[in-house]
Every structure is written in structure tokens, then in C-alpha cells.
Write a sequence for this structure.
């Protein structure tokens, strides 16, 4: 596994504050950030995204080509559907003049099209199983079933095929960017030393903190009446009052939360950078002390009661984090074994382990295709952010002793088992690795901007008629 949160690392993968009508961009970011943000995120954009896609209930704009990217057209419909989605989802977008917003969207689409073409040229592919898992992740983030997700997607004017095509494109782009950028970013020991000094001296007071939030969700059905919503809000308020009165929050979550993963970790979503949490959650706990209760706050999923479990600055010497001891079996994709065959084999392993006829460590030693095989698949004690987000999201949903279903990642297919968890202060070496990861994240953002410009410069771009709403 690589020590970088690159693929699917949006806003926290375990959190569920976004609605399906707000896929792709984190609420509350500036419009410049919105347009620059790459699809390192799940859920992906849920715009119509292709010529001829419906534009929900808005009047359909005239159809014509507005630009060519290496002879591939971008249509007026594509631009306007993306604009409409931004306007629905982000308050910042509504403050931007329509002509400027339309221009920004067109430029973003040109960038994406050039990058997708490069992914195709390099032979990068995303199979259906990876798309299936991305769809399931979107549903989990929104605290809904896949069936309800598809219903909401249809209400946005998208077919399921179009939505899955968008998911596939986002996965393609992240895999391309990881391949083209990751190896070029290096962090020196001198930079790590300076980062830690800055953290401890307070000169990085504005650095993004790490936080861990636990949530209790009172779900609100999409078809709920005003009376039902009021009743559910009252229930959430009562649960918040009980939490503030000192009742065990983890027990309240297990007994009363509507979140699908309520049985794991007492509702804890995991220690990670605050900007990987939904803005709604971050704002709600801004003035909340550690172990304090915030909310209920309303999202598209329902009413959330939040408990701030931890808050610290990256690199701080007294930082306490939740560490997970985890092991895995990795089967890589190769010409002799398809992803579907790897999934089937790992499902067989899972059945044998759970029935007691095989041992996880033994199967890992005999079959895992990475360096951890000789250790029985043991990856040691991991800190938040150490693994790629799709692996970490699956790991965080497991209680100690549980085994995941096969997980498709860019490395292959994994079977994951959580052995144990603990709260621990970081050792000096771990502090340095955490600092290195934070610095790497920043450099990756800078490297992505340069790479995107270079990719665009290599493409032939021809502007046609200006987009019209």
C-alpha cells in the first residue's frame, strides 16, 4: 500500500452529509477552488456530462458544438447541464456572474476531456466491479441504499447508465493523475523538520487540523411530509439532549442511529484532516470542545447529532490518534486472472476463514501478491491517512475481527481484516511520517496544477460558438 490519500479522497469517505443532488463539489468552497478541484473525490459529478443528456426540469438549451478537444466535441448541453448543477449545489456559484461561471465550466470540461483522452491512450481502464463499488460508496456517504441512490439520480435527470459513466470517468482520471504525478513528488527530511518546527512554534496556526467526529443520524426519507420531518427533528433533539446529559454516545448510536455502519466504532468517522469532512460537520463543531456535542444539523440525509472525539494539529508532539492493526490479502490484476476471478477467489477465502477451515495469515502467506505476504498479510499499526482512501474507508467500517468483502482498488483486489484498534500518541518516527504525508498532499496539489496545464497544452483545442443558456 502507498502512503498517500490520493484516489477517492474528497471529503471524508465515511461521512454522510452530502445529498445526491450535491455530488462532486464540497459545499462552501470558493468558486476558484470548485473549478480547479480535480476528481479526486467520491461521489463524482452527477451532471448530465454527455451530449443529449436531459437537463432535469429546466428548459433544454439549444444544442450545438462549443469546442473541440482533439476533434472530440463538447456541446452546449454539456456545459449548461454542468452550470445548472453547480448553481443547484453551491451557494458560491450563485454569486458568480453567469457568463463567467459558464466560461469556467467550459474550461473545466476541456481539461477533463483532454485528460480522459490521455487515459485512453495509456490504456488505463476501470472495470465494472470498481464502478459498482464506487456506486456503493456514494450510497453509503448519503446514508441511503443503492436503489434509493438510483432513484435520486433519476430525479436529477440522469439515467443510471449516465451516472455510472460519470463514475467511471472520475475513477479513470484519478488513476491517470496518480500514475502521472505521484512518482514525481518528493519530500526531503529538511522540509519535514521545518514543518514540525512550524507546527510546534505555532507559526502554522492556520493549518488545517485533524479531527475525529462521531455521528448519530436520524434519517429523513426523501418523501417525508412536513409533519414527519418535524417529528424526526424532535427525535434528533431529544437524542442530542440525552448525549449532552452524559449518556454514552456510542451506546446511543448503536440503539438509535439510522446510519448503516452504526455498529462499528460507535459512529466514529475517523481522524482525518478537517477539509476531508463535509463542511456542514466542520462548521457545526467549530466551537465545540473535545467530547462536546453539536447539533442536530440538517443535511439531505437527515438530522445529524455530532460528538467531537479528537482535534489536533498535524505534527503536534502530543497528538493522539486512533491506530488500526490491519492485514490483507492482495490479488493483483494480470492477464491470467480478471478482476471478477480475483473477487471470486477472495470470496472463497473469506468463506473458508469464517467457517474455520482456513487461517487468514496462512492464506495471505500463500496467495497475497505484495511484500506483506511473508508476514501473513500484516500491515502493522496504521495511522489515519496512511492508506489510499478506498482501502481506508473499507477498513474503518470494520470492527476488530471482521473481514471485508473483496475490495477493488488501483492495486488489485483486497480482502481486509481488522485485528485491533487503539488510541495512541504518535512516536517521533510516526510524527515525521504524518508530517511528510501532509507536505506530500500539498505538493501533489501543486504538481497536479502543473500537470493539468501541460496535458491541456498538448491537446488541440478549437473554440466554436460561445455557450448559450
Amino acid at each position: 500500500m502507498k502512503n498517500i490519500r490520493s484516489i477517492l479522497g474528497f471529503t471524508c469517505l465515511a461521512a454522510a452529509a452530502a445529498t445526491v443532488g450535491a455530488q462532486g463539489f464540497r459545499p462552501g468552497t470558493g468558486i476558484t477552488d470548485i473549478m480547479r478541484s480535480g476528481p479526486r473525490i467520491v461521489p463524482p459529478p452527477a451532471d448530465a456530462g454527455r451530449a443529449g443528456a436531459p437537463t432535469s426540469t429546466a428548459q433544454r438549451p439549444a444544442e450545438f458544438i462549443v469546442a473541440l478537444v482533439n476533434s472530440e466535441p463538447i456541446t452546449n448541453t454539456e456545459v449548461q447541464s454542468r452550470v445548472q448543477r453547480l448553481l443547484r449545489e453551491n451557494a458560491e456559484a450563485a454569486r458568480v456572474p453567469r457568463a463567467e461561471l459558464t466560461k469556467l465550466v467550459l474550461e473545466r470540461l476541456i481539461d477533463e476531456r483532454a485528460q480522459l483522452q490521455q487515459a485512453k491512450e495509456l490504456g488505463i481502464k476501470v472495470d465494472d466491479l470498481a464502478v459498482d463499488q464506487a456506486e456503493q460508496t456514494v450510497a453509503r456517504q448519503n446514508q441511503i441504499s443503492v436503489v434509493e441512490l438510483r432513484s435520486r439520480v433519476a430525479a436529477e435527470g440522469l439515467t443510471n447508465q449516465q451516472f455510472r459513466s460519470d463514475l467511471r470517468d472520475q475513477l479513470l482520471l484519478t488513476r491517470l493523475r496518480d500514475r502521472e504525478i505521484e512518482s514525481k513528488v518528493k519530500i526531503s527530511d529538511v522540509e519535514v523538520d521545518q514543518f514540525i518546527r512550524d507546527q510546534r512554534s505555532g507559526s502554522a496556526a492556520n493549518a488545517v487540523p485533524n479531527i475525529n467526529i462521531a455521528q448519530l443520524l436520524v434519517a429523513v426519507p426523501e418523501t417525508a411530509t412536513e409533519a414527519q420531518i418535524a417529528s424526526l427533528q424532535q427525535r434528533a433533539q431529544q437524542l442530542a439532549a440525552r448525549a449532552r446529559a452524559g449518556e454514552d454516545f456510542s451506546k446511543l448510536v448503536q440503539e438509535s442511529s439510522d446510519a448503516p455502519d452504526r455498529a462499528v466504532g460507535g459512529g466514529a468517522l475517523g481522524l482525518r484532516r478537517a477539509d476531508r469532512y463535509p463542511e456542514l460537520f466542520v462548521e457545526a463543531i467549530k466551537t465545540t470542545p473535545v467530547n462536546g456535542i453539536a447539533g442536530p444539523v440538517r443535511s439531505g440525509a437527515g438530522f445529524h447529532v455530532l460528538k467531537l472525539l479528537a482535534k489536533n494539529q498535524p505534527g503536534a508532539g502530543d497528538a493522539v490518534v486512533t491506530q488500526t492493526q490491519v492485514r490483507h490479502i492482495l490479488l493483483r490484476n494480470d492477464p491470467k486472472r480478471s478482476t471478477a476471478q480475483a473477487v471470486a477467489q477472495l470470496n472463497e477465502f473469506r468463506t473458508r476463514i469464517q467457517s474455520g477451515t482456513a487461517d487468514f495469515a496462512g492464506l495471505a502467506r500463500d496467495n497475497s501478491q505484495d511484500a506483506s505476504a511473508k508476514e501473513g498479510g500484516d500491515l502493522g499499526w496504521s495511522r489515519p491517512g496512511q492508506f489510499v482512501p478506498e482501502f481506508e474507508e473499507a477498513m474503518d467500517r470494520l470492527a476488530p475481527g471482521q473481514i471485508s468483502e473483496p475490495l477493488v482498488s488501483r492495486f488489485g483486489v483486497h480482502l481486509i481484516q481488522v485485528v485491533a484498534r487503539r488510541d495512541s500518541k504518535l512516536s517521533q518516527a510516526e510524527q515525521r511520517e504524518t508530517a511528510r504525508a501532509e507536505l506530500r498532499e500539498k505538493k501533489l496539489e501543486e504538481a497536479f496544477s502543473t500537470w493539468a496545464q501541460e496535458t491541456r497544452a498538448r491537446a488541440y483545442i478549437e473554440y466554436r460558438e460561445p455557450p448559450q443558456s
